[in-house]
Amino acid sequence: MDANSVTAICATVIAVASLVVSITEARASRRHNFQSVRPLLSLDCLRLNSGLAGIRIRNAGLGPAIIRVTTLYLDGDEVGPWEKQVVDPLRGTFAVWPNFSTLRPGKPIPVGQELMILAVEDYQPARDAEFWTAVTQRIRIHVQYESIYGNERQEAWFEGSPRHQIELPSHGRDDAESSINNDAQTEPSQYL
User: Fold this and answer.
1) What are the CB-based long-range contacts (under 8 Å, 24+) for 177-182?
2) Whether 145 contacts 181, CB under 8 Å
3) CA separation (Å) from 172 to 80, 88, 178?
């Protein structure tokens, strides 16, 4: 082997190594970009001393969450999407008409935003007992959402309060999916 052959082989090896490093770095950069805008929605029930009580959704992720599909379950039966025309009949059954926020497809939930999607502002235990029972035991909400890249669907579940949970059908979820938001099913600010 002469010097020119050795030089050519070395140049080829260096070029291939550079190509491998470039591809690896591009993939890592792309993965980082996806992760840097990944949303993380959680739903929980909340009851504050100020009188606010209901269901809250919040985005604790790094990027906005784009709502794709929502489903309301009442007493284990699928009712429909979390929209006004579906939720209004339920709202009409309570002593006080609760405030409501829709979760329509395409709606963005910005980073750090907390939104009360069903709430009474002046909770009174005697008057609003039926509302609180519905929030903690009867209502289940499934939300599918994605990042602004739209590359992967994620989901969040609201399943009431763990203290009050009733065993309901899994609606096609496996155990891994049902534990996604176990931390989000608490009553973080409840004062009795």
Assistant:
1) 180/155, 180/156, 181/42, 181/43, 181/156, 181/157
2) no
3) 16, 27, 10
DSSP H helices, the chain, are 3-36, 84-91, 129-133, 175-178
Predicted local confidence at residue 27, as pLDDT? 86
Check residue 35 and give its pLDDT.
66
Q: What is the pLDDT of residues 104-162, one digit of tens each?
A: 999 999 999 999 999 999 999 999 999 999 999 999 999 999 998 887 889 999 998 76
What six digits make up the tokens of 137?
Answer: 């035991």
Spatial distance between the Cα atoms of 68 and 97, rounded to a whole number of angstroms: 27
The continuous run of DSSP H or E covering 68 comes out as strand 65-74
The side-by-side arrangement of strands in the sheet containing 53-59 is 41-47, 53-59, 114-120, 99-100
Q: Which residues contact 149 (CB under 8 A, 6 or more apart)?
A: 33, 34, 37
What residues contact residue 129 under an 8 Å CB cut-off, 6+ apart? none
Token digits of residue 74: 């009442």
- Strand bridging mode 41-47 / 53-59: antiparallel
pTM: 0.70
Quickly state the pLDDT bin for 88 (edges 50, 70, 90): very high
Question: Is residue 94 exposed (0-12), middle (13-18) or buried (19+ Cβ within 10 Å)?
Answer: middle
